Structure formats: C-alpha cells, structure tokens
C-alpha cells in the first residue's frame, strides 16, 4: 500500500497530475533578449567588417586568376615537364581553393557581422496570386535593404564579380573531359596503340634498367615501361599512361592459359596492363599468396592465375595482357603491342 511517508507519488505531493487541480497550461516565454553585436553599435567595427568581406571576395577573384594562370600559362613555359606538372597542379589546386574559400568565407562573414540577426516568427500561409503579390515584393525589398545589397555597393559589386568568375575553373576542367569531338572510334584507336612493339625491351619504372628473365622471381612484381619512354620530350606522360605494365612470375601449374596465348609468357613470367578497365586508375597492389591484383580506387580485383579476370568490383573487363618473350641476351622484350585497347572498356560500349 502507498504511504506518503515513503514517497508514494500519488499522495506525497511530488507529482502535480494534469487535470486534477494542477496547472495544465504555461505562458510562452517568448524570444530571449537580443544582444547587439559590435558592428551594430560601433560604426568603425562595421566599416572594418565591410573591408574584411571585400578582401575575402578579392581573394576569391585572385584565386580564379591564379587557376587560369596555372591552367593556361604554365603549359607554355620552357621548364622541364616534371617541374612544369608539379607547378601547374600546385597553382590549379591553390587557385581553386582560394576561389571557393574566399567567396564562401566572405558570404558567411557578411551574414554574421553585417546582416540583421534578429529572430522572427511568422505564421505560414499561402500567397494569393494577385492580392498578395505586392506584399511579397515588399518582403523582397526589405530583405535586400536589410542585407545591405543596395547601400553597400562595393561589397555588392565585389560579390557579383567573384561569383561570376568563380565557376569558370570548374567549367574549363569539365570541358576537358568532353571527348565527343573525337568520336568513339577515335577514342578506342588512341588506347589501342602504345609504344610496345616487337623487340622493345621491358625496363624498370622509373630507372629505365632492362629486366632479365632471371631477375623475376616468384612473388615479385615489377612496374615496367617500354624502353625509350624516358627519352621522350613530348607526350611522355600520355604514352606512359597507356604503356605501363605489371610484370610478375607465377608457378606454371597455377596458370590457366587460353588457347592462342600459350607463348605469351616466359616460363611463368607474365605482363599485364597496369591501367584498370573501370575508369583507368593504376592497379598497383599485388597479393602474393592469392595472386590477386587490386585497384585501390574502387577495389576491382583481378585474378592473375586466370589471365587477370575480374573477380570482384566494378571493372568490366580483364586487364589486357602484353605478349612477351626472351631475347638472345636473356632480356625480356615484347612480342607485339597489346592485342586490345588498354584502360576503361570503351570498345565494349555501344
């Protein structure tokens, strides 16, 4: 039995039940007092905040200009290709970062320091097509006035300038992805032909040292390029992107060789394109125990014992195999170019 001496909630008075003489309503306390910001009471602080916002917008403009300098200007300099590529990537990255951060931080600082920050609560109601159009226009005018877009012309103009050119870097970068003017057959032809041909030696990347068959042991993996690639002055990166291969040695009893490929390996030494057939990322991870190759971008997995057949992931095609042989000096050389286009499987698309 309940006893108020022991804290029975029904009789101790600790609980005030609703509808039994207790208070079942409460007064809306309203919004808390609004503390003014320093920019609301100090004209100098307001001017200082305006200058800060303007500087951020100008930084955004400078970032966009920096992007275009790196994108278009660096390519015409006479510096070597490696340094040129690093400088170009640095300028493009910094330019894009400053362009986006400048305009983003500028808008945030404007809103927090200069735009009205008082809280309001309004009932939601439908706006009639005609009768309340004037009221809606008045609200818009009030927003523009409170935001300072009309009276702060310098801020408004720098914002418009930064916002107008900030998207241009993205437009130019996405434009470079458009290869429609080449046509599907042109795309395939560009990926079908590489620097590999009959008699071209397999050399280590990046040293350029030729590889003997005796150098390739079970479980080892070599990153390989065609001999002569390092001596190219123009188009070196494009050629390397297509021609780079992985060289490994397997126990011959674990290899499943398709008809017609019996002579494409040298005593279990095989060479496969390093370019993933999904979107072209470099396949660089070799698991010795399972003989699997892994693309780190989207985890496509290729089984080396089954001629790099896809066993997991989004890749839609096995890695192309490079036919190799051993020359009279014991060095590994190519028998021919790849027998199919390398890289993403464009040739399988309609």
From TrEMBL:
<protein>
    <recommendedName>
        <fullName>Cytochrome bc1 complex Rieske iron-sulfur subunit</fullName>
    </recommendedName>
</protein>
<feature type="domain" description="Rieske">
    <location>
        <begin position="242"/>
        <end position="333"/>
    </location>
</feature>
<dbReference type="GO" id="GO:0004497">
    <property type="term" value="F:monooxygenase activity"/>
</dbReference>
<keyword id="KW-0249">Electron transport</keyword>
<keyword id="KW-0479">Metal-binding</keyword>
<dbReference type="Pfam" id="PF00355">
    <property type="entry name" value="Rieske"/>
</dbReference>
<dbReference type="GO" id="GO:0046872">
    <property type="term" value="F:metal ion binding"/>
</dbReference>
<comment type="function">
    <text>Iron-sulfur subunit of the cytochrome bc1 complex, an essential component of the respiratory electron transport chain required for ATP synthesis. The bc1 complex catalyzes the oxidation of menaquinol and the reduction of cytochrome c in the respiratory chain. The bc1 complex operates through a Q-cycle mechanism that couples electron transfer to generation of the proton gradient that drives ATP synthesis.</text>
</comment>
<comment type="similarity">
    <text>Belongs to the Rieske iron-sulfur protein family.</text>
</comment>
<keyword id="KW-0411">Iron-sulfur</keyword>
<keyword id="KW-0679">Respiratory chain</keyword>
<feature type="compositionally biased region" description="Basic and acidic residues">
    <location>
        <begin position="1"/>
        <end position="13"/>
    </location>
</feature>
<keyword id="KW-1003">Cell membrane</keyword>
<dbReference type="GO" id="GO:0005886">
    <property type="term" value="C:plasma membrane"/>
</dbReference>
<feature type="transmembrane region" description="Helical">
    <location>
        <begin position="53"/>
        <end position="72"/>
    </location>
</feature>
<dbReference type="InterPro" id="IPR017941">
    <property type="entry name" value="Rieske_2Fe-2S"/>
</dbReference>
<dbReference type="Pfam" id="PF19297">
    <property type="entry name" value="QcrA_N"/>
</dbReference>
<dbReference type="GO" id="GO:0051537">
    <property type="term" value="F:2 iron, 2 sulfur cluster binding"/>
</dbReference>
<keyword id="KW-0812">Transmembrane</keyword>
<dbReference type="InterPro" id="IPR045603">
    <property type="entry name" value="QcrA_N"/>
</dbReference>
<feature type="transmembrane region" description="Helical">
    <location>
        <begin position="154"/>
        <end position="174"/>
    </location>
</feature>
<keyword id="KW-1015">Disulfide bond</keyword>
<keyword id="KW-0813">Transport</keyword>
<dbReference type="GO" id="GO:0016705">
    <property type="term" value="F:oxidoreductase activity, acting on paired donors, with incorporation or reduction of molecular oxygen"/>
</dbReference>
<keyword id="KW-0408">Iron</keyword>
<keyword id="KW-0472">Membrane</keyword>
<dbReference type="InterPro" id="IPR036922">
    <property type="entry name" value="Rieske_2Fe-2S_sf"/>
</dbReference>
<feature type="region of interest" description="Disordered">
    <location>
        <begin position="1"/>
        <end position="41"/>
    </location>
</feature>
<feature type="transmembrane region" description="Helical">
    <location>
        <begin position="92"/>
        <end position="111"/>
    </location>
</feature>
<keyword id="KW-0001">2Fe-2S</keyword>
<keyword id="KW-0560">Oxidoreductase</keyword>
<dbReference type="InterPro" id="IPR014349">
    <property type="entry name" value="Rieske_Fe-S_prot"/>
</dbReference>
<keyword id="KW-1133">Transmembrane helix</keyword>
